[in-house]
Amino acid sequence: MLHHTPTNWLESNNPSFYKGQGDSGTVTLGLRHRRTNPLTPWGIEVVGEYLTAKRPGPHDLLCVIGGKPAHRLAHAVTVSLREALVAARIAGRPRVTARSIALASAVQVFEREGIVAATRFLGSNSLDATAASLGFDWQAD
User: How buried is 69 (Cβ within 10 angstroms: 0-12 exposed, 13-18 middle, 19+ buried)?
Assistant: First the structure.
């Protein structure tokens, strides 16, 4: 599920609206581990345009999973990302993968907000696994 929470008219028309720092919005993803992530300025623009055109109700979802297992959905996202990498002509680079893109984003979240936020961003339930994935020894003396 993808719950919407961008800005502008939604602030007054959507009880689930969350306004972070500046003019940011968030999305709440609810598959195996529910998490809320900030939208980039581009994400705010795209989701805002969609919501302005469609005018969904305050509790409507942007995306419904339709009962498919989470691993099938994750696979579909990975395939789509792979297609985007091919289209961008960077798919052949050894360290450019769907996982490396997610981890690079998680590093940015980690640097801004810490290990807990990075763990949520990745949808993980383990601080240790997240730290290891990011190459960070967070329990070092």
Answer: exposed
Domain membership flag for residue 4: yes
> Does residue 47 lie within any of the structural domains?
yes
Alpha helices in the chain (DSSP H): 10-13, 41-54, 70-87, 98-113, 115-122, 127-133
Q: What's the domain range around 56? A: 1-64
Residue 49 falls within a domain, yes or no?
yes
Domain count, the chain: 1
Query: Contact at 8 Å (CB) between 86 and 98?
Result: no
Query: Which strand ranges, in their side-by-side order, compose the sheet holding 35-38?
Result: 2-5, 26-29, 35-38
More confident of the two residues 128 and 139: 128
Provide the pLDDT confidence category of residue 47 given band limits of 50, 70 and 90.
Answer: confident
Cα–Cα dist 75/49, whole Å: 27
Mean pLDDT of 7-28: 47
User: In this structure, is residue 80 part of a structural domain?
Assistant: no
